[in-house]
Amino acid sequence: MVYEAIKKLVCYGLETGLLEPEDRIYTVNQILDVLKLDEYEEPEEEFSGVNLEETLGELLDYACGQGIIEDSIVYRDLFDTRLMNCLMPRPSQVIKKFWEEYETSPEAATAYYYKLSQDSDYIRRYRIKKDMKWTADTRYGRLDITVNLSKPEKDPKAIAAAKLAKQSGYPKCQLCMENVGYAGRTNHPARNNHRIIPITINDSQWGFQYSPYVYYNEHCIVFNGQHVPMKIDKAAFRKLFDFIKQFPHYFLGSNADLPIVGGSILSHDHFQGGHYTFAMAKAPIEKHFSIKGYEDVEAGIVFWPMSVLRLRAADPDRLIELGDVVLKAWRGYTDEDAFIFAETDGEPHNTITPIARKVGDTFELDLVLRNNITTEEFPLGVYHPHQELHHIKKENIGLIEVMGLAVLPSRLKTELAMLGEYMVDGKDIRKDEVLLKHADWVEEFMPGYQEKGILVTRDNVWSILQEEVGKVFARVLEDAGVYKCDERGRRAFAGFLHFVGFEEV
Fold first, then answer.
1. pLDDT of 11-23, one tens digit each?
2. Which pLDDT score is estimated for 140?
3. Cis previous bond, 171, omega within 30
4. 164 pLDDT higher than 70
5. Among 200, 401, 446, 470, which residue has the fewest nearby CB atoms (within 10 Å)?
6. Which letter, b or e, does each residue of 95-133 get, where b requires 16 or more Cβ atoms within 10 Å of its Cβ?
7. Could you report the per-residue pLDDT of 324-359, keeping only the tens digit for each?
8. What are phi and psi of 190, to 5 degrees?
9. What are the residues whose beta carbons fall under 8 Å from the beta carbon of 446, sequence distance 6 or more?
10. Helix pair 73-85, 24-34: axis angle to 10 deg
11. What are the residues facing 297 on neighbouring strands?
12. DSSP 158-197
């Protein structure tokens, strides 16, 4: 049985191109070593169209049965990554192939590398498929909704082991170059099968890789070769466009550099991008502005729930220069009437989430104004999902969500399914501990369907819930916007732009 699984894994490597035929015997022996086997008998059966998840499952079951590893998701993940590394080319081979493909086109290079990252199981396709995904039409366009189910839950034993595990400073974080080939531990994911493409950004060494939890097509991470903190400044804008010039089919953006409005990893300078067009990128400019000295730059407020200034020009250097003017102005800007404070008690609040892209022959820079002030009423942030929306979304709004893709917690899979049953059966939602938090929301949206004479049935309840979750996400983005999409908000936004030196066209 185990020999069959070994042969299937090797066949998978040959079929996907991870292995060359000359590597076959060597690879078998590498797998034997990982499985602590001294011998091998080649099965006669030939295999094709190998299911990777099933094959790895067979090998993992064997390893657990032999006491090689503990039977838990954490240890299984560490071990199957070791197995996949037996099929992997060395980093130098991957890098060489990437740049050979780049000679054909940037698209060819990224297509090769994205396929490799999936074939290697670094991106676990079978887990990504578990994510619930749909779109929701709103006044701001079609938003993407994802309930994230691809990150495995840690079991109690592994959590306990992680607490006892030695706290290591190597790698310093999950974005460091030193993750290439790293075997991992209970408190750090295995990266044996991980390969990074070194690239030069703004005359310094950076790395290019894909996110193991791809939320959209070719979801990539571009990160500093040095473990240095994130910082939004003129140099950050320059880095964004330096990448776009090399990979014009990708967008690239950065989380903000302050807590609450920033991403989860502020300790390591990095960007996120990919080959995908978000709803925000499609959103039109609703008010146009110009500024003296930058007559060649088109500027305007974007019709979007968050506060976005879009700059467009043929020369990206002009966007970098003007972007820096806007950033510096925003860092020091206070408008008490609009509840915008540059700082309180010496703590800075204003920053920007920037996104760069190329559309045809024109470069674009979206500057999303962010503020992380908190109050007694809003201890998690004034410009953060408000309390009444926490039943759907409580977490910080980072770059991906700013652009129109909701990443919602896994608990919603069960909760929405239960909620649908309660709605169809007419049960009292408030009597269930788990569903109680959703009761106000359902009571808020149901009258609208009743007025239209729409009855909730097993056939339509899921589409109703999908639509209503989409509306909640739009409200989440509105909460995160420093200027609201109403007359007062637009007037205050224009006030800031006038402060910078812009005039309405």
1. 999 999 999 999 9
2. 97
3. yes
4. no
5. 200
6. beebeebbeeeebebbebbbebbbbbbbbbeebbeebee
7. 999 999 999 999 999 999 999 999 999 999 999 999
8. -70, 140
9. 423, 456
10. 150
11. none
12. HHHHHHHS----SSSSTTSGGGTT---BTTB---TT---E
d(CA 46, CA 44): 6
Q: Which amino acid is at 153?
A: E
CA 283 to chain CA centroid, nearest Å: 20
Query: What is the token pair recorded at 111?
Result: 């297509």
Contact in structure between 109 and 95 (CB atoms under 8 Å): no
- Axis crossing angle, helix 461-480 with helix 439-451, rounded to the nearest 10: 120
Say if residues 231 and 219 touch (Cβ distance below 8 Å). no
pLDDT-derived band at 169, boundaries 50, 70, 90: confident
> How far is residue 500's CA from residue 480's CA, in Å, rounded to a whole number?
22
pLDDT greater than 80 at residue 124: yes
Query: 229 is written with which tokens?
Result: 């903190």
Structure tokens at 298: 């088109």
- Measure the CA–CA gap between 363 and 357, rounded to whole angstroms: 6
Q: How far apart are alpha carbons 379 and 383 in whole angstroms?
A: 10
Contacts for 231 with CB less than 8 Å, ≥ 6 apart: 257, 269
Does residue 217 have a pLDDT over 60?
yes
- Written as one letter, the residue type at 142 is R
Q: CA torsion angle for 32, 36, 39, 44 (degrees, to 10)?
A: -50
pLDDT for the residue numbered 266: 87
Distance CA 361, CA 47 (A): 48
List the one residue out of 151, 154, 150 whose CA is nearest residue 74.
Answer: 154
Amino acid at site 80: D
- Strand ranges (E), 339-460: 343-344, 347-348, 350-359, 362-371, 405-408
Place 166 in a pLDDT band, splitting at 50, 70 and 90. low
How far is 220 from 251, CA to CA, in rounded Å?
Answer: 10
Q: Which of 317, 307, 320, 311 is nearest to 365 (CA)?
A: 311
* Cα–Cα dist 276/427, whole Å: 41
pLDDT at 215: 94
Read off the tokens for 106.
């940037």
Identify the residue whose tokens are 């032999």: 66
State the pTM of this model: 0.94
Q: Residue type for 474, please?
A: A
For the chain, the distance separating the N- and C-terminal CA atoms, rounded to the nearest angstrom, is 73
Tell me what the mean pLDDT of segment 291-300 comes to: 98
DSSP 335: B
Query: How far is Cα 138 from Cα 108, in angstroms, rounded to an integer?
Result: 35
Show the beta-strand stretches assigned E in 191-324. 197-201, 204-210, 220-224, 251-253, 270-274, 285-291, 298-302, 308-313
Reduce the DSSP state of residue 117 to 3 states and report it: helix
